[in-house]
Amino acid sequence: MEFEKVVARINELARKNKTIGLTDEEIQERNELRGQYLNNFKRNFKQQLDSIKYVEDEETNGQS
Q1: CA distance 44 to 7
Q2: Contact 10, 37 (CB under 8 A)
Q3: Direct distance between the N- and C-terminal alpha carbons of the chain, in angstroms, rounded to an integer
Q4: Which of 20, 36, 40, 48 lies 20 to 30 angstroms, CA to CA, from 59?
Q5: Which residues in 1-19 are b (16+ Cβ under 10 Å) and which e?
């Protein structure tokens, strides 16, 4: 499922939960969607961290 659609569905279920509550199936769907969201967030965050270059390391390597 596309990331924006996952977020939209999570928000839809959250609004429904606050008003009339969720069925057991909807609770299970919400939990699965939250898991997908967290996995995607972790993957993106790891990519960002992996792309960081330390300036000090580059300066030290260049002076050798």
Answers
A1: 15
A2: yes
A3: 49
A4: 48
A5: eeeeebeebbeebeeeeee
Whole-model pTM: value is 0.75
Select from 47, 51, 48, 53 the least CA-distant residue to 62: 53
Cα gap 12→5, rounded to integer Å: 10
Instruction: Extract the tokens encoding 54.
Output: 């330390």
Cα distance between residue 6 and residue 36, in whole Å: 8
The tokens for 46 are 């790891």
Q: Each residue of 17-57: pLDDT tens digit?
A: 999 999 999 999 999 999 999 999 999 999 999 999 888 76
Q: Which amino acid is at 11?
A: N
DSSP state of 37: H
